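Worked Example 4.2. Consider the chain below.
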Amino acid sequence: MSEADIQLITQKAWEAYQNEEYETAAKAFAQAVEALSAENQSLQQAEMKNNLSVALLKAGKPEEAYQAALGTEQVFASAGDLKRQAMALANLASALEDLKRFDEALNLFNQSAALFKQISEKEMRAYVLQRISTIQLRQGKRIESLVSMDAALEEKRKLSMKDRLLRSLMGIIRRLSGMK
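Applying the procedure from the previous section yields the following structure tokens:
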């Protein structure tokens, strides 16, 4: 398959994704993965596998999403691409979270957050820290959840009204509990 054919498939996949046709997007991303496999383009294939994973997750198929992204973090690590490695870890963690495998999800989200911190990718790190906070809250780890959410808000450049309110409430909680 030619590079132009692969680009056309990828474009159709993104159009379907943007139109919230996640099943259609997943099928197109899967076609792109196959085409890139035949062309022996491992980095591009790993990227398409991550796109496939996100589409499958949005389509309500977390196990398939997990399987699609599995191993891509290692491809990116081998290439020294820390940003895409962190994104792949977050994709895997998101699928695990949907599968209610919270401890495994927390482990991968923490690895992702550390990589995002290493490369100073603040917005993506903030998103991952918010996901960590949510899982910790589900697990009854309220203090850890607050700390994670506070760290997430620290990373954001622009706070929404909800974020500002949350930061205010967290400040009150810190003052009442004697925390700095």
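The mean pLDDT is 91. The CA atoms of residues 17 and 25 lie 5 Å apart. Compare this with Example 4.1 before moving on.
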